[in-house]
Specification:
The complex is a heterodimer of chains A (about 280) and B (about 250). Chain A is mainly alpha-helical and about 280 residues long. Chain A is built from 12 helices and 7 strands. Chain B has 2 domains: about 5-75, no CATH class; about 110-250, Cytochrome c-like domain (Cytochrome Bc1 Complex, Chain D, domain 2). Chain B has helices at about 5-20, 35-40, 65-75, 90-95, 95-100, 110-125, 140-145, 170, 190-195, 200-210, 230-245. The chains are: A mainly alpha (about 280), B mainly alpha (about 250). At the A-B interface, helix 9, strand 3, helix 11 and helix 12 of A face helix 3, helix 4, helix 5 and helix 8 of B.
Chain lengths: ~280, ~250
């Protein structure tokens, strides 16, 4: 039972409010640390109902289904995902998501959780792009989201720390930063339009500020249950939906532009604990 | 994009890049780190005429060049996606002068010269109704101010045939207090009551709705008129919502 395991992990860290966590914390505890630390917690506290519901986050059911899928021998190669290397060695999940996106020598690419998972499902299990296991990218019923939620949950409380040692990691992050400020399309939006001030609202929704890592970590903590969708969503889905509202054309799942953006936004939360699975409006 | 490339393909790519005068001067990842044009040209290339997609070295580009490359050349966006205005996804991503000038990074200030350039371009974009600026129907203006519908494409395109695109005003502004507006822009509650309806005030308001950069260079506000989000009649309706004494904005 993953929740029980996480509970056993040092809650003292949460109490002490240590920023650079190197071991797990339940998402609700990680969030509480951030709320106490924030100068203006209005983004973090905007939904008391969600905070209240976090211990019973429906995403945990999705994560449990993901754990089962992860350990099950599946696909044409009849293999589990237990040898998948998410950057910290084959099968090491603890803290792995907090260090993504990162460069992988075996593909020569910077990959996020989504793309790395798909890579392993192809190479280890023999799935192809046409298999429903890979094709279905969104929704709590999809294998991809079950697996991502399980793998992501193993980084809860770990400080975001995407490596910047490989030149490609830096290049992608820097291009993502440019894209964050690049205005275009019908409404002249860039990401900065909505995400460079604390406590500002689009209609009733309080927006997260990229310059405040304390609150920004929650914004980028995916997978998360979205109560308005009744589905668990991924980082890739967040990019898709923001860009849709921005009147941009469809961004492709796992595309290099998506990885660049995710690299930049994860780097902006560096040092703050991941809150996964989160519960968002 | 970073897959190991066979030497022949790398050489071919180098040739392509040289021929095309592309800013990306490096092909491949490690093997082609130093693609001396002469050496590449001299290499005995037996690649097919239609070479595979050019492999470029992302680490050799400036962040700006890489961002442009990722947006337009890396198969990241559906550039052929149809838009409501009859263009394509590519056109949505291409920047005009105002968008380009206003893509200011953190800590980057707009220069006086650029400010003047933006304001002049914005002022020049504004077209006025033939019979002069008039107030329309505040009730339709209310709906337009509230509606965030329109021009979205991506995975869920808005169908404009059955429904008019809105002005998205409430996203950022508080207007009448019966509905919750955002606060990225200033509150406009009581707009007409507080300002009156002099010709200058009407013109100023029309201009700001049409293209606010004419007064506020590089504002966050979108250009309703200049980008075709609202037509002149719709702008008149939104203005009625702002100025009409009967409008809930002024109650």
């Amino acid at each position: 039972m993953m929740k029980a395991n996480l509970l056993a992990l040092p809650l003292a860290l949460a109490a002490a409010g240590v920023a650079y966590a190197s071991s797990g914390m339940l998402p609700e505890d990680a969030l509480n640390v951030q709320i106490k630390k924030a100068k203006d917690p209005s983004y973090l506290t905007q939904s008391p109902q969600n905070i209240m519901m976090m211990p019973d986050n429906p995403a945990w059911i999705v994560a449990e289904a993901g754990e089962k899928l992860f350990k099950e021998a599946r696909g044409p190669k009849n293999a589990s995902l237990e040898k998948c290397d998410f950057g910290k060695g084959p099968g090491v999940l603890e803290g792995a998501h907090a260090e993504l996106p990162r460069y992988f020598a075996d593909t020569g690419k910077v990959m996020d959780l989504d793309t790395r998972l798909v890579h392993c499902m192809k190479t280890l299990q023999g799935f192809t792009n046409d298999d429903p296991a890979i094709k279905q990218k969104h929704g709590s019923k999809s294998d991809i989201m079950k697996l991502q939620t399980y793998i992501g949950s193993k980084s809860s409380g770990y400080a975001w720390n995407p490596p910047m040692n490989h030149p490609l990691e830096k290049a992608m992050r820097d291009a993502g930063e440019v894209m964050f400020y690049r205005r275009s399309a019908t409404m002249d939006f860039n990401c900065a339009t909505c995400h460079t001030q604390t406590g500002k609202r689009i209609r009733a929704s309080v927006l997260p500020n990229v310059y405040e890592p304390t609150e920004w970590t929650k914004a980028i903590s995916w997978p998360a249950q979205r109560t308005s969708h009744d589905e668990v969503r991924s980082s890739q889905h967040r990019a898709l939906e923001c860009l849709w509202q921005m009147r941009y054309p469809n961004i492709k799942n796992g595309s290099d532009a998506s990885i660049a953006m995710i690299s930049f936004w994860t780097d902006a939360a560096r040092g703050e604990p991941a809150i996964v699975p989160d519960l968002k409006r | 994009m970073f897959k190991k490339t066979p030497i022949a393909a790398v050489a071919a790519a180098s040739l392509l890049l040289i021929a095309g005068g592309c800013t990306a001067t490096n092909a491949g990842k490690t093997e082609a780190a130093k693609p001396a044009p002469v050496a590449a040209a001299a290499a005995p290339v037996a690649a097919p005429a239609a070479a595979p997609a050019v492999k470029v070295d992302y680490t050799k580009m400036s962040a700006k060049d890489l961002a442009e490359y990722l947006i337009f050349e890396s198969d990241s966006y559906d550039l052929k996606q149809p838009t409501q205005e009859g263009t394509t996804g590519r056109a949505r991503l291409e920047q005009d002068l105002i968008q380009k000038t206003c893509s200011l990074m953190k800590g980057q200030e707009l220069s006086d010269k650029d400010r003047e350039k933006v304001m002049a371009a914005a002022a020049a974009s504004i077209k006025y109704p033939e019979g002069g600026i008039k107030l329309g129907d505040w009730k339709n203006g209310r709906e337009l101010a509230w509606s965030g519908f329109g021009f979205r494409t991506a995975h869920n395109p808005d169908d404009h045939t059955g429904r008019q695109a809105g002005g998205n005003c409430y996203n950022c502004h508080q207007l009448a207090t019966d509905r919750t507006g955002g606060d990225i822009g200033p509150s406009l509650t009581g707009y007409g009551k507080n300002r009156g309806t002099s010709p200058d005030m009407l013109k100023y308001t029309y201009d700001v709705i049409y293209n606010a950069h004419a007064y506020f260079a590089c504002t966050n506000m979108h250009r309703n008129g200049a980008m075709g989000v609202l037509n002149q009649n719709q702008i008149a309706d939104v203005m009625a919502y702002l100025f009409d004494p009967a409008s809930p904005v002024n109650k």
